[in-house]
Amino acid sequence: MSEAVHRELGAGRWWSLTLAEQLGNIGSEVSRTLKWRSRDARIAQGALERALELIELTLDDPRHRASAARLRELCRMREVLLDYLVGANEYGSTERNLQRYFDTFAAAATRRPRDARGEESAPQR
Description:
- Helices cover about 65% and strands about 0% of the residues.
- It is mostly helical.
- The chain has one domain (about 10-110).
């Protein structure tokens, strides 16, 4: 992989995001990878590298390191993604099911909690 692209995030800001926000951002890079893989391999490779960098930052997040189940899920997600994009696709993944997996987190990240009066509260960052 090339040098870190997400320097600001790597400096700790990434860990202030919720898991849904982290996975939603990873999903954006995965979406770019899927979009460009048949059009421009260079652009697709760059997006994949950025996605992998964000996955590594997520795996290094101390909140996730405290949960074996969460780490297992994150590692499996990375494994399935790489199996589909650069491996033999032994898991039988499709572009559609990968996109749906990450879209779920992007949707969850955009939902804002409501206070007792039903008003939207500021997103927690």
